[in-house]
Amino acid sequence: MGDRLVVLYNDHLPYNRERIESLARTVYATEEELPALLPGADTLLAWWPLSPAVAASWPDDPAKAPRWVHVAAAGVDPYLFPALTGNPDVVLTNSRGVYDQPIAEYVLGLILSLAKDFPGMWDHQRGRQWRPRDSERIGGRTVLVWGTGSIGRAVARLLRAVGMRVSGAGRTPRDDDPDFGTVHGPATLRTGLGEADYVVLAAPLTPATRGMVDASVLAAMKPGARLVNVGRGQLVDEPALVDALSGGRLAGAALDVFAQEPLPAASPLWELPGVIVSPHTAGEVVHWRHDLAELFLDNLLRRAEGRPLRNVVDKEQGYVR
């Protein structure tokens, strides 16, 4: 039996916990229990990944901090606090890869819904109204995928497969990327924004990306373009987005993530025309928790056998390189 593992959970536990328990002395902690159970633990599995409890419960004594933290999500922004990132003895891993194809399929579905106005069609159906109208094609339309990690790449590959013209936006510009072709860096970002019919946000939330889609970025987008956000809500200045949508500069948006979740009932995003709201579910498909649990188990076995861990996060950058 290995060192102590603490599993932070909310309303459910990992399905394969018997196998996990065979490899580590496992204890389960709610947010309220975590401050008492985290100090002295060797490993933390953040099965409830969006909880702020880890930062609040992190031991003051670095010697009592976990040596490995695994996050059951792709984004690790709640774990980029100084006591963790500044401790060189702490390894942070995430669940990169589990969400790639599900989110890519979700983005394609959102783009189709916007282009074909499926929400309007469903409204007419509920009203028993027969209203034929033209819809838009997506083939040949231009997409800028902002975020060139594994999720952004899966999005790019799928959108290319249905005939869309795709480019990327990231920190390092290049013209020969296998998935994006052209990747716009900061110097040419405005050009990419001005050409895109759809801008898809798939970037991680880091100090460098927080609020990156502000009023100036929205103004640089092509008039009549649409925004799709499957990254993090805090990437976007929501009041500026509401202004761009209300004023008609943007034709619409499909938003799966928000600055505050659940999205408050008073938010104008609920009722703005051309806006699709979904409750942070782009990556949640049948058996997604199974895949999350299996990835952690594989890393737990790797650690027990002294092999390199998968998905080690660069704590300075906030994502897996």
TrEMBL record:
Listed PROSITE patterns: D_2_HYDROXYACID_DH_3 (PS00671)
MF (Gene Ontology): NAD binding; oxidoreductase activity, acting on the CH-OH group of donors, NAD or NADP as acceptor
Domain of life: Bacteria
Keyword Zinc: no
Keywords, in A-Z order: NAD, Oxidoreductase
KW Oxidoreductase (keyword) present: yes
Segments forming domain D-isomer specific 2-hydroxyacid dehydrogenase NAD-binding: 108-282
Protein name: D-isomer specific 2-hydroxyacid dehydrogenase
Species, as recorded: Streptomyces himastatinicus ATCC 53653
